[in-house]
Amino acid sequence: MSALQYHWVLGISWKDKVRNEAVRQQTKLEELNLIIKERRLRWLGHVLRMEDNRIPKHAMYWQADHNAKRKPGRPRKNWSDTIRQDLKSIGMTWEDAEQSVINREDWHRSVAQCVYDTG
Predict the structure, then answer these.
(1) CA distance 33 to 31
(2) Who wins on pLDDT, 76 or 48?
(3) Contact 35, 115 (CB under 8 A)
(4) DSSP characters for the chain?
(5) Residue extents of the structural domains in the chain
(6) What is the pLDDT of residues 8-61, one digit of tens each?
(7) CB of 97 within 8 A of CB of 44?
(8) Which pLDDT score is estimated for 50?
């Protein structure tokens, strides 16, 4: 449900000028960016636990040809960079994550921390 739908369910009109943050607090909803971060990290754990011959695992470690000509400007942010930033937010490095995913319950607890401790 979107924030607009929750406004409607709670009987809040747009004329009342109630902010989305207030609606989220009232409905105990987490911010969407935190939910997405949690799901990215859960997917990372899933892929890291895969066997080495699986295509998703190969794709995760694949490096682009750095000799290829690029357009001017800042390079686009890739999945790996985003994951590293997500891991940093929960106090982990990539190497820590590779070790941590072995125990699925511990990994899920660590990942949930990114939503519930920072949200």
Answers:
(1) 6
(2) 48
(3) yes
(4) --HHHHHHHTT--GGG---HHHHHHHHTPPPHHHHHHHHHHHHHHHHHHS-TTSHHHHHHH----TTS---SSSPPP-HHHHHHHHHHHTT--HHHHHHHTTSHHHHHHHHHHHHHTT-
(5) 30-62+77-119
(6) 677 777 777 777 777 777 766 667 788 888 899 999 999 999 999 999 988 888
(7) yes
(8) 93
